[in-house]
């Protein structure tokens, strides 16, 4: 089975700012294409990765950005312009129908951080997930409101809909027949559709609800990568913060792609997993006039360990730098390193690509901790940083919030701390004494994107490993917000049926507990209204 992604645009490269794919801007749109395609190729090196595209897509993604497509297929997407402009789904159907072998089409805002199961790829019809309950009711409502002249029989009997974040299967010929049926449906109902006030849901109705009914009528089984969805809220699949323990596949929803937090996390992911490609793409985007958020890091070349040299041995700051975790991991990997404020590997160790990633993460983490520790006002020659993890269970005893905090207080973070991004949970290695074989193996297995706060508490560095909710709240309180506004925003990240009862109360008190943790760290300021 081949993997496919589809690109078309109604604009040329000279109007690059208009090619945004629903993202916050065109820069994040192209970075999303890079992350999605690079993940697919990394996890499936044995499968051909094809781009179905127009001339603009070929130039941008293959010729210019050099994304890892094995081949491409130019399609006449302009022929779909014979249909009304608000019906864009026929362009996707043109791509689906163009294949003469089993295929799987993956949206450019779908990120597969793990490999698709080989048995799953042998199924007749593959989709991201089925949709039932509220989602199915929504499509039936749209269909009824359209007041059409001709409604296909398969649309009348659909017992579910699907999400087409990924779609394909071994029954590739079905997509050709389905595309013809949709084209006939549109031609037969163009006048009715033009007059309708319910055009917004038309494209997903055709691709997801009609397609499901068509498969059912043909007696084909639909297999979902993810469990069936009972509602239309997909925020939980957009949360890059939940990697790697809660989710392994991410699909950014249309609304989420406008969220600055998601855009930045997506870019972090590209930078962490594919640093060489990231900085190469960044320089190319800069030539198109698309500004970059992240500069190339100083001291480390591409955030890897192949360095031109080490710092001077006369540096006073070096003498107070300590590397217990980095040294421990290097020894476990049997890698020789030269540690100062920066370090380099020997030639043999440079070949250990996977080991290098692991060592890279702990070095950057520990360097951040060292630099933060040097800002203490009272240092001595014998100074050595010590660390403690926050015991969340003790927060109630340590922090007391004002009773009227929910209504009469606002909160904003202050700049007396530092946040480190890490690929592993180094925060769980509280001291070098705890670095045993079991701890090391556990940390290797828990790979993801973690954010760790370093803050000061008297003579200690306090280390706090943020979870997904912490990351959301932390990003929001860069602005001064009321607790109630903060709670209302956080609640939008949860489906309505996450909790059985007292949904608002649970979210409110959960947010308050996070505020307690940040108060204990001393990284926020409370303001009375």
TrEMBL record:
Pfam families reported for this sequence: DUF6734
Sequence ranges assigned to domain DUF6734 in this UniProt record: 1-283
Cross-referenced InterPro entries: DUF6734
Domain of life: Bacteria
Name assigned to this protein: DUF6734 domain-containing protein
């Amino acid at each position: 089975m081949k993997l496919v992604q589809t690109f078309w645009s109604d604009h040329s490269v000279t109007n690059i700012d208009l090619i945004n794919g629903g993202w916050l801007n065109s820069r994040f749109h192209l970075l999303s294409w890079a992350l999605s395609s690079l993940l697919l190729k990394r996890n499936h090196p044995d499968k051909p990765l094809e781009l179905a595209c127009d001339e603009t897509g070929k130039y941008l993604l293959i010729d210019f950005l050099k994304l890892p497509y094995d081949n491409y297929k130019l399609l006449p997407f302009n022929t779909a312009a014979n249909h009304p402009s608000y019906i864009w789904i026929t362009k996707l159907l043109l791509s689906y129908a163009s294949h003469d072998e089993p295929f799987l089409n993956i949206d450019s805002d779908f990120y597969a951080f793990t490999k698709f199961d080989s048995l799953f790829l042998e199924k007749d019809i593959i989709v991201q997930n089925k949709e039932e309950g509220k989602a199915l009711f929504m499509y039936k409502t749209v269909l009824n409101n359209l007041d059409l002249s001709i409604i296909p029989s398969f649309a009348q009997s659909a017992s579910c809909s699907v999400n087409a974040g990924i779609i394909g299967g071994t029954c590739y010929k079905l997509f050709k027949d389905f595309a013809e049926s949709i084209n006939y449906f549109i031609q037969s109902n163009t006048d009715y559709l033009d007059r309708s006030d319910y055009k917004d849901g038309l494209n997903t109705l055709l691709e997801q609800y009609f397609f499901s009914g068509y498969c059912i009528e043909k007696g084909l089984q639909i297999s979902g990568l993810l469990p069936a969805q009972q509602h239309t809220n997909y925020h939980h699949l957009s949360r890059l913060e939940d990697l790697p323990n809660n989710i392994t596949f991410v699909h950014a929803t249309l609304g989420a792609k406008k969220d600055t937090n998601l855009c930045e996390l997506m870019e972090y992911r590209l930078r962490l997993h594919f640093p060489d490609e990231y900085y190469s793409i960044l320089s190319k985007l800069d030539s198109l006039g698309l500004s970059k958020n992240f500069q190339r890091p100083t001291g480390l070349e591409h955030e890897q360990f192949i360095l031109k040299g080490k710092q001077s041995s006369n540096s006073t700051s070096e003498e107070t730098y300590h590397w217990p975790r980095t040294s421990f991991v290097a020894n476990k990997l049997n890698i020789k390193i030269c540690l100062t404020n920066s370090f380099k590997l020997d030639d043999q160790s440079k070949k250990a690509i996977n080991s290098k990633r692991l060592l890279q993460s702990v070095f950057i983490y520990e360097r951040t901790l060292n630099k933060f520790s040097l800002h203490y006002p009272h240092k001595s020659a014998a100074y050595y940083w010590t660390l403690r993890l926050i015991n969340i269970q003790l927060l109630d005893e340590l922090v007391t919030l004002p009773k009227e905090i929910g209504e009469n207080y606002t909160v904003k973070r202050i700049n007396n701390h530092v946040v480190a991004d890490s690929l592993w949970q180094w925060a769980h290695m509280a001291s070098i004494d705890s670095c045993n074989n079991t701890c090391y193996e556990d940390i290797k297995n828990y790979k993801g994107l973690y954010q760790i706060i370093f803050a000061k508490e008297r003579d200690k560095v306090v280390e706090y490993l943020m979870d997904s909710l912490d990351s959301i709240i932390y990003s929001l309180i860069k602005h001064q917000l009321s607790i109630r506004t903060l709670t209302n925003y956080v609640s939008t990240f949860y489906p309505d049926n996450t909790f059985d009862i007292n949904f608002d109360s649970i979210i409110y008190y959960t947010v308050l507990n996070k505020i307690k943790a940040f108060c204990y760290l001393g990284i926020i300021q409370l303001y009375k209204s």
